[in-house]
TrEMBL record:
Protein name listed in UniProt: Cytochrome P450
Organism per entry: Hypoxylon rubiginosum
Organism ancestry: Eukaryota, Fungi, Dikarya, Ascomycota, Pezizomycotina
Length: 550
C-alpha cells in the first residue's frame, strides 16, 4: 500500500506538498519542544538548527570545536543549555561559575562518570566493573571503594613531598639518558629532517615507560608496542563512542589489546616489583580490592597513558615556541645556564656546563623557581593547547550559584577551550602566544590555579580561568610532576641542541587541531619538520654530563 492511499479525496494538496507540510510541522514542534526550559531558572537554551539531535551531530562531526564555537559566539552567556535527546548538557564558560561547579562536588560529581568511561576506553570486564561501582563516592566514615582508595594514594604520593621529588629525579635522569643516547646516535648527525612531535613522542614514551614500569617494561621488551600505544591514543574518542569498537575503532582497539596483553604478562611475571613505588602500590590496591590481573593490566594502561600523552604534546609545543623565537630561546638558555652548578672543585673560569669535563648539577626546583621565562612559556603553551572539558553529572536538581537551575541526570561541562580563548579574561592578544602574560606572577605552585597570571594594568586573572589541569576534585594529580619532567626535558634540549626548520627560514608554529575530541593537549594540524644538531655556539661542546638534584 502506498503512502498516497491514506490521503482523503477532499485533501487539496499533492502527496509531495503534504510530505513537506508534515516535515515542517514536525520540525517546528520539535524545535518548540527542544527550546523549552525545564524550569524558568534554567540557563538560556541554545536550540540546534536540526532539532533534537543537532547538537549531537555537531559534536560528532566537529569534535571539541563545536561547543567551543558555540561558547565563543555566545560570549555574553556565562552558562547555557544544550538540549540533547532525553537530557541536557550545561556548558559553563565563565571562571567564577566554574569555581562554583567545582565547589558543589557533592551534587555535581565526576565520580559516577568514571566507570562508564573506563569500561569503554579500557575494555574492562563485567566482574571488574562491579568492583569499581562499589562504594564509588563514599562519605566520611563510609567504606571506601577501589576508586576512592587509588585516588587518595595517587593524589597524596604525587603531591608535594619526598616521593614527588624521588619520582621527578628518576624521570629527569631517564630522559637525560634517552637524550644522550640520541645525541650519540647517527640520527643526531645525519641532517635528516625530523618530525619534532614524533621525536619528542619517542623519547617521552620510552623514558616514561621505564621510570614508571622499570627496565623490563612491555615497551622496552617490544619496541613495536610504542606504535600500538599511539594507535590507542588516537582512537580514544571512537572507543568512547563504543559502537562495535573492534570495527569502528579497529586500530585503537588492536593497540589497546596488544598493550594490555603485554602488561598482563609483565604483571604475571611480577616485573612491576622492578618498577616505581607508585605503580607497585597501585597494583597492590587493585589486588586488595579483588581485581584480577587482566583488569589490573588495563588499569595500568590508563596510568601509562596519563603519564605520557599530555607530557608529550606539551613538551612539543614548548620546544616549538622556544625555537620559533630566537629572543625567547636566548632568554631560556640564559636562565637555565645560570642555574647550572659545576660539581667538585671548580677549576676553570667558565661557569655552568660550558667547559669540558666534570659533572654539572641541575636542581629541578630551580627550573620552576628561578627560570621565570621558561615557567611562563610552559603555562602559556598549556593555555593555548588545552581545550579541556571538566565534566560533572548532576546528581540532584540543583540551583547553581543560587541562580541557575540544573536538572537531575543532566551533564555539566566546564569549557576550558572557551575560557582559554576569552578576550575579556586574557586580553586582545588572547589568540597569540605571549608568555609575558604569565611573567608578572606570584608564586604559582605548579600550574594549579591560573599560575598567578596577571594582565598588565588589569585585575588579576581568576584562579579557575587556567583550565589545563582541570579543577576541583578532578584537578590533575600529576601537575607538579609534569612541570618538573617537562621543564627538565626542555632544559636538556635547549642546553645541547640547535633546532632549525628543515626547509630553512624560521620555525613556523602550526595551528592546533581542535576538530577532535579533546582527550589531551591538542596536537598541531601539520608536522613541524626540523633539523636537530649540536649547538653551534660551542656550549657543551664536549658533551654535557648533568646530575639532577631536587
Ligand atoms: C602537561 C601535562 C598534563 C596535563 C595538562 C594534565 C591534565 C589533566 C587533566 C585536565 C586531568 C583531569 C581530567 C578530568 O577532569 O577528567 C588529569 C587527570 C589525571 N592526570 Fe594529568 N595531566 C598532565 C600530566 C600528567 C602526568 C605526567 C601524570 C602522571 C604521572 C598525570 C596523571 C593524571 C591522573 C592519574 C589523572 C586522573 C585523576 C583521577 O583519578 O581523577 N597527568 N590530567
Ligand atoms: C590531558 O590534558 C587535557 C587538556 O588539559 C585534559 O582534557 C585531559 O583530561 C588530560 N588527560 C590526561 C590523561 O591527563
Amino acid at each position: 500500500m502506498a503512502y498516497a492511499d491514506f490521503i482523503p479525496e477532499s485533501w487539496p494538496f499533492s502527496a509531495g506538498t503534504t510530505a513537506v507540510v508534515i516535515i515542517l510541522a514536525t520540525y517546528f514542534i520539535a524545535y518548540q519542544l527542544s527550546s523549552r526550559k525545564v524550569d524558568p531558572r534554567e540557563p538560556t537554551v541554545i536550540v540546534p538548527i536540526i532539532p533534537v539531535v543537532g547538537h549531537i551531530l555537531g559534536m560528532a562531526s566537529l569534535g571539541g570545536r563545536y561547543i567551543k564555537n558555540l561558547g565563543l559566539r555566545n560570549r555574553n552567556l556565562p552558562i547555557f543549555t544544550l538540549p540533547v535527546p532525553a537530557s541536557r548538557i550545561y556548558i559553563v564558560a565563565d571562571p567564577s561559575l566554574a569555581a562554583a561547579v567545582q565547589r558543589a562536588s557533592k551534587v555535581l560529581s565526576f565520580t559516577p562518570i568514571i566507570p562508564e568511561v573506563t569500561e569503554r576506553v579500557l575494555g574492562l570486564d563485567k566482574a571488574t566493573m562491579e568492583i569499581t561501582r562499589k562504594n564509588l563516592d563514599p562519605g566520611p566514615g563510609e567504606e571506601r571503594g577501589f576508586l576512592a582508595d587509588i585516588q587518595d594514594m595517587v593524589y597524596a604520593w604525587l603531591g608535594p613531598g619526598d616521593y614527588l621529588g624521588e619520582l621527578s629525579l628518576e624521570a629527569a635522569r631517564e630522559m637525560r639518558d634517552e637524550i644522550a643516547a640520541y645525541a650519540a646516535s647517527s640520527s643526531a648527525t645525519s641532517k635528516q629532517p625530523t618530525d619534532l612531535l614524533n621525536w619528542v613522542r619517542h623519547l617521552v614514551t620510552v623514558s616514561t615507560a621505564k621510570y614508571l614500569y622499570g627496565p623490563q617494561n612491555p615497551i622496552a621488551l617490544d619496541p613495536k608496542l610504542e606504535g600500538a600505544f599511539w594507535d590507542f591514543d588516537h582512537g580514544l574518542g571512537s572507543l568512547l563512542m563504543n559502537i562495535l569498537p573492534s570495527i569502528t575503532a579497529s586500530r585503537a582497539y588492536a593497540g589497546r589489546e596488544r598493550l594490555s596483553a603485554a602488561l598482563q604478562a609483565y604483571l604475571e611475571k611480577g616485573l612491576h616489583r622492578t618498577g616505581s613505588k607508585i605503580v607497585q602500590r597501585r597494583v597492590d590496591i587493585a589486588t586488595a580490592h579483588g581485581w584480577a590481573l587482566p583488569g589490573v593490566a588495563r588499569e595500568e594502561l590508563s596510568f601509562l597513558f596519563a603519564g605520557i600523552v599530555n607530557a608529550t604534546t606539551s613538551t612539543f609545543w614548548l620546544l616549538t615556541q622556544i625555537y620559533a623565537d630566537p629572543e625567547l630561546l636566548a632568554a631560556v638558555r640564559g636562565e637555565v645556564e645560570s642555574i647550572l652548578e659545576r660539581e667538585g672543585p671548580s677549576d676553570s673560569s667558565s661557569s655552568g656546563g660550558g667547559g669540558g669535563g666534570g659533572r654539572t648539577r641541575l636542581r629541578i626546583a630551580d627550573l620552576k623557581d628561578r627560570c621565570p621565562v621558561l615557567a611562563a612559556a610552559y603555562r602559556e603553551c598549556l593555555r593555548l593547547g588545552s581545550d579541556t572539558y571538566s565534566t560533572r553529572l548532576v546528581k540532584e536538581d540543583t540551583l547553581l550559584a543560587n541562580r541557575y537551575f540544573l536538572k537531575k541526570n543532566a551533564v555539566v561541562q566546564i569549557a576550558g577551550g572557551v575560557i582559554h580563548a576569552d578576550r575579556s579574561i586574557w586580553g586582545d592578544d588572547v589568540d597569540t602566544f605571549n608568555y609575558r602574560r604569565f611573567l608578572d606572577r606570584r608564586e604559582g605552585g605548579g600550574g594549579s590555579g591560573a599560575g598567578g597570571a596577571k594582565q598588565q594594568g588589569a585585575a588579576p586573572i581568576h584562579p579557575a580561568a587556567f583550565r589545563a589541569f582541570g579543577g576541583g576534585k578532578t584537578l590533575c594529580p600529576g601537575r607538579h610532576f609534569a612541570m618538573h619532567e617537562i621543564l627538565a626535558f626542555v632544559a636538556l634540549v635547549v642546553l645541547q641542541f640547535d633546532v632549525q626548520p628543515a626547509r630553512g627560514g624560521r620555525i613556523e608554529v602550526p595551528r592546533k587541531n581542535d576538530g577532535v575530541l579533546p582527550v589531551h593537549i591538542l596536537e598541531p594540524v601539520s608536522p613541524v619538520q626540523v633539523l636537530i644538531s649540536k649547538r653551534a655556539d660551542g656550549f657543551a661542546r664536549d658533551g654535557l654530563d648533568v646530575e639532577f638534584v631536587m
